[in-house]
C-alpha cells in the first residue's frame, strides 16, 4: 500500500505547521523511551548540548545523537525602528525556554544562528566593525555559501536571516518552543521553512531510520541495515570523529580575529544544507565493500556487516595517503578525503587552555536524517521545489570555526585537497565518496553568536 | 507587519500513524496484489503450479537446453506483462557464451524510465559466482576492476524445490536487480528482476520468490 499525495499532506498555515509533528510523531511511537539525563548549567556556546550519552557500539565510543531535530528559518520583517523591541521579545522568550528546559537531551537544545542577509540589511555598520574575520582565509568568518563541484547546478543558495535549530529527545519540547518563539515574534519574523528529522539511537531492533523510512515507503528502505544510526547504514557520531566541545568556537584555534570588542567570543559558524540520499542506488549498486570504500577508505579492513567503524586520531589519513588511494584505486573515501582538512595537522593549545592533539576532529556535526521533500513546510513551495510525499535525505548541520573552514572540508570531499591539489573526478563520480548518491538541494552559512548575543545580534550597538 | 501564511505541506500524522500501525496489513496487501491480477497467461490460466514448462514457452527453453547440453530452468509464472516465450513480444535476447553459460532476458519498457526486466542465467559445469569487469574513467585514466557479479547476500531461502541465495548488489545486465542464485548438479543458475518503477523492492522480492518457486527443470533431449 503506497501513501497517496492526499494522505501525506494536510492543509494549514505556517503556525499549524510549527505545531505539527507530521510523520515525525512516529519517532516516539517507534523508539524506546529516552533515558533521563541530568541537567547542567548554560554555557556561552549555543551549539553545545549538555549530558550527551557516550556508549560503546561494536567496541567504539559513540556519542548518542538526539532523537528529534527541527530547523526553522525565517526572514526579519520587523521595521528597522522596531528592531530593539523585537530583540527584547526574542531574548525574553529564549530566556523563558532556558528556564523551562535544561540544555540536555531530555530538555531542549536551542541554537539561534544568523545569516549574512540579516547583518547586511539590518545592522550593516555594526557588522562591518564586529563580524569576526578569518585570518587564514583573509575574509569574513561568515561568507556566502557556495555550490561545490559535486553539487547540482540548481542547488539553491539561500538567503534566510535567521535559523533556529531545536534538538531534543522529546519532540513536544521542540514543538512548544518553536510555537512560543514564533507566536512571540509574530510580525517580526516571517517563517521561510520548517525542516524536521531524527537520528537513530542504536538502541536495538530495526532502528529509527529504517523504521521511519519503511513506514514512509521510501525506495530502498528495506535495504537499510537493522539498527543503523542513519539511512546510509554507518554510525557517524563516533566520539573521535566529532570535535571536542569548544574547538569550533571562533577564538579557540586562533583562526579568527574577533574585532575590537570580541563581541562574538564564544560563538561559532554553522552550515545548513539539505541533501537527498538515493538509498536504492546506495544499497543496490554498491556492495558492503564498496560502501566501506566510499564511506571510509579503500581497502580499509572492516568486518562485513559492521556499522560502527573506529576513526581514531592515530588512523587519520594524510593528504599523501588520499592521493595514493586515488592513484591506486581511483577512489577516495569520504572520511579519509575529509581528514586532511577536518583534523588538526599538529598539536594546538587552544585559547581555552586545552591541548588539542594532532588528528583531533574539528567540525561538530549535528546532521540528522529526514523524510522532508526537501522541507517539512516551505513559505515558497515553488522556489524550494517542494515534492510530493516523503523522500530520504539528510539535513546537514555542522559547526566549524569559519565558513572557509567548512568550505575547505567540503571541497576535500570533492577531491580538492588542502594543499591546493585537485584530484580529478567527474561530478558525483562513484570514486568520490558518497557524492554519487547525494543531491544537495539547499545551502546556507550562518553565524552562531554566543548566548548573550543570540537575539538580533548587534542591534543594541546601532 | 505579519508574515503571510502559505499553504502547509506537511504530512498527515494520523494517516501516517494509521499506515504504520497497519504495516503488516499493508505488507500483506502488497504481497496479495503481487500475487493476483498481475499474472502472465500460462500461470493465470492454471490455478495450481504446472508441473512442466508452459506449452507456449517450452519450445524455446528446450532448444536452449539442447543447445548447451545442460539443464535449464523454465519459469511457470512471469511478472506482468512479461511472458517467457523466446521470440515472443517481450523477448530481450538470448545469448550463449563459448563456455555454454547463457543469458535469457525479457523486458517491458515504458519510456522514459519504467521497466519490467527479468534475466535468467545458467553456468553449466560451474559453481563459482562469475567475476564482472567494471570500467571507469578517473582523471583521464581508464580503470578496470574485477568483482563478483553477484554480491551482498541477504540470506538463503527454500523456494519450492530450489534453495537459493538472494543477492542485492549485482553487476552487468543484472545491475539494479535483485537476484536469486542457486546451485544444482554442479552448475550455477540465477534469475533476477530489475528494481525500477513501477515496481518496488518489496514487489520485486515477492515476484522473484514466486518466480523461483515455479521454476521447472528442462533437460536436454539431444
Count every helix of chain A, treating DSSP H or I runs of 4 or more residues as helices.
13
| Class inferred from helices and paired strands of chain A | alpha+beta
Provide the gyration radius of chain A in Å: 21 Å
Instruction: Tally the beta strands of chain A.
Output: 18
Instruction: Report mean pLDDT of chain A, rounded to a whole number.
Output: 91
Mean pLDDT of chain B: 82
Helix segment tally of chain B: 5
Q: How big a fraction of the residues of chain B is strand?
A: 35-45%
Q: Which key features would you list for this structure?
A:
heterodimer, A: alpha+beta, 3-stranded antiparallel beta sheet, 13 helices, 18 strands, disordered N terminus, B: 222 residues, alpha+beta, 7-stranded antiparallel beta sheet, 5 helices, 11 strands, globular
Describe the protein.
The complex is a heterodimer of chains A (462) and B (222). With 462 residues, chain A is α+β, with helices and mostly antiparallel strands. Chain A has one domain (22-34, 52-461). Helix content of chain A is 25%, strand content 19%. In chain A, the strands form four sheets. In chain A, strands 3, 4, 7, 8, 9, 11, 14, 15, 16, 17 and 18 form an eleven-stranded mixed beta sheet that branches. Chain A has a three-stranded antiparallel beta sheet with strand order 6-5-10, with no helix packed on it. Chain A has a two-stranded antiparallel ribbon with strand order 1-2. In chain A, strand 12 and strand 13 (355-356) form a beta hairpin. In chain A, helix 4 (83-100) packs antiparallel against helix 7 and helix 12 (334-342) packs antiparallel against helix 13. Chain A is globular and about 60 Å long. Residues 1-12 and 33-40 of chain A have low confidence and may be disordered. The longest helix of chain B has 14 residues, at 55-68. Chain B has one domain. Residues 1-39 of chain B have low confidence and may be disordered. Chain B has helices at 13-21, 23-34, 41-45, 55-68, 201-213, and strands at 72-74, 91-96, 102-110, 114-123, 131-138, 141-148, 150-159, 162-170, 177-184, 187-194, 216-218. In chain B, strand 9 (177-184) and strand 10 form a beta hairpin. Chain B starts with 12 loop residues before the first helix and ends with a strand. Chain B has five helices and eleven strands; from the N terminus they run ααααββββββββββαβ. Chain B is α+β, with helices and mostly antiparallel strands and 222 residues long. In chain B, the strands form three sheets. A seven-stranded antiparallel beta sheet of chain B has the order 2-3-4-10-9-8-7, covered by helices on one side. Chain B has a two-stranded antiparallel ribbon with strand order 1-11. Chains A and B meet through helix 2, helix 3, strand 9, helix 8 and helix 9 of A and helix 1, helix 2, strand 5, strand 6 and helix 5 of B.
Amino acid at each position: 500500500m503506497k501513501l497517496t499525495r492526499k494522505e501525506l499532506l494536510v492543509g494549514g498555515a505556517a503556525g499549524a505547521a510549527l505545531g505539527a509533528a507530521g510523520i515525525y510523531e512516529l519517532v516516539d511511537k517507534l523508539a524506546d523511551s529516552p533515558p533521563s539525563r541530568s541537567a547542567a548549567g548554560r554555557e556561552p556556546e549555543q551549539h553545545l548540548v549538555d549530558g550527551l550519552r557516550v556508549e560503546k557500539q561494536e567496541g567504539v565510543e559513540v556519542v548518542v545523537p538526539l532523537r528529534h531535530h527541527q530547523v526553522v528559518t525565517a526572514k526579519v520583517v520587523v521595521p528597522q525602528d522596531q528592531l530593539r523591541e523585537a530583540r527584547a521579545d526574542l531574548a525574553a522568550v529564549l530566556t523563558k525556554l532556558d528556564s523551562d528546559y535544561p540544555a540536555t537531551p531530555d530538555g531542549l537544545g536551542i541554537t539561534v544562528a544568523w545569516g549574512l542577509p540579516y547583518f547586511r540589511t539590518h545592522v550593516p555598520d555594526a557588522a562591518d566593525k564586529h563580524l569576526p574575520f578569518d585570518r587564514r582565509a583573509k575574509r569574513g568568518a561568515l561568507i556566502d555559501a557556495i555550490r561545490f563541484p559535486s553539487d547540482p547546478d540548481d542547488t539553491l543558495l539561500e538567503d534566510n536571516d535567521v535559523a533556529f535549530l531545536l534538538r531534543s529527545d522529546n519532540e513536544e519540547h521542540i514543538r512548544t518552543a518553536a510555537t512560543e518563539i514564533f507566536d512571540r515574534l509574530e510580525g517580526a519574523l516571517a517563517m521561510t521553512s520548517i525542516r524536521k528529522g531524527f537520528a537513530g539511537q542504536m538502541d536495538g531492533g530495526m532502528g529509527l531510520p529504517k523504521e521511519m523510512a519503511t513506514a514512509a515507503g521510501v525506495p530502498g528502505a528495506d535495504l537499510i541495515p537493522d539498527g543503523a544510526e542513519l539511512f546510509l547504514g554507518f554510525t557517524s557520531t563516533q566520539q573521535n570523529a566529532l570535535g571536542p566541545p569548544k574547538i569550533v568556537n571562533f577564538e579557540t584555534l586562533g583562526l579568527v580575529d574577533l574585532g575590537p570588542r570580541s563581541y562574538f567570543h564564544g560563538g561559532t559558524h554553522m552550515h545548513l544544507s539539505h541533501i537527498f540520499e538515493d538509498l536504492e542506488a546506495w544499497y543496490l549498486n554498491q556492495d558492503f565493500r564498496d560502501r566501506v570504500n566510499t564511506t571510509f577508505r579503500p581497502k580499509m579492513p572492516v568486518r562485513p556487516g559492521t556499522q560502527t567503524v573506529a576513526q581514531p586520531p592515530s588512523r587519520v589519513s594524510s593528504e599523501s595517503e588520499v592521493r595514493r588511494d586515488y592513484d591506486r584505486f581511483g577512489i577516495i573515501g569520504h572520511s579519509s578525503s575529509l581528514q586532511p582538512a577536518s583534523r588538526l595537522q599538529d598539536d594546538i593549545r587552544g585559547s581555552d587552555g586545552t591541548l588539542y592533539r594532532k588528528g583531533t576532529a574539528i567540525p561538530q556535526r549535528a546532521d540528522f536524517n529526514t523524510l522532508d521533500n526537501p522541507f517539512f513546510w516551505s513559505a515558497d513551495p515553488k522556489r524550494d521545489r517542494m515534492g510530493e510525499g516523503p523522500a530520504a535525505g539528510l539535513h546537514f548541520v555542522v559547526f566549524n570555526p569559519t565558513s572557509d573552514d567548512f568550505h575547505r572540508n567540503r571541497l576535500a570531499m570533492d577531491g580538492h585537497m588542502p594543499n591546493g591539489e585537485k584530484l580529478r573526478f567527474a561530478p558525483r563520480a562513484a570514486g568520490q565518496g558518497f557524492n554519487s548518491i547525494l543531491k544537495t538541494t539547499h545551502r546556507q552559512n550562518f553565524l552562531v553568536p554566543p548566548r548573550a548575543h543570540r537575539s538580533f545580534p548587534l542591534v543594541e550597538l546601532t | 507587519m505579519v508574515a503571510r501564511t502559505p499553504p502547509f505541506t506537511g504530512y498527515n500524522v494520523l494517516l501516517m500513524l494509521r499506515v504504520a500501525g497497519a504495516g503488516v496489513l499493508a505488507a500483506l496487501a502488497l504481497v496479495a496484489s503481487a500475487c493476483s491480477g498481475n499474472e502472465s497467461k500460462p500461470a493465470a490460466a492454471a490455478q495450481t503450479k504446472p508441473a512442466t514448462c508452459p506449452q507456449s514457452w517450452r519450445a524455446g527453453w528446450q532448444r536452449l537446453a539442447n543447445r548447451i547440453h545442460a539443464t535449464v530452468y523454465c519459469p511457470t509464472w512471469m511478472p506482468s506483462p512479461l511472458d517467457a516465450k523466446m521470440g515472443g513480444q517481450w523477448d530481450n535476447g538470448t545469448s550463449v557464451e563459448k563456455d555454454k553459460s547463457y543469458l535469457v532476458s525479457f523486458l517491458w519498457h515504458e519510456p522514459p524510465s519504467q521497466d519490467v526486466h527479468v534475466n535468467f542465467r545458467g553456468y553449466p559445469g560451474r559453481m563459482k559466482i562469475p567475476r564482472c569487469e567494471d570500467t571507469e574513467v578517473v582523471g583521464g585514466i581508464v580503470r578496470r576492476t574485477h568483482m563478483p557479479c553477484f554480491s551482498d547476500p541477504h540470506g538463503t531461502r527454500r523456494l519450492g524445490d530450489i534453495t537459493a541465495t538472494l543477492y542485492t548488489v549485482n553487476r552487468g545486465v543484472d545491475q539494479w536487480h535483485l537476484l536469486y542464485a542457486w546451485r544444482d548438479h554442479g552448475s550455477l543458475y540465477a534469475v533476477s528482476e530489475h528494481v525500477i518503477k513501477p515496481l518496488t523492492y518489496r514487489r520485486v522480492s515477492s515476484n522473484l520468490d514466486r518466480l523461483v518457486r515455479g521454476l521447472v527443470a528442462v533437460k536436454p533431449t539431444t
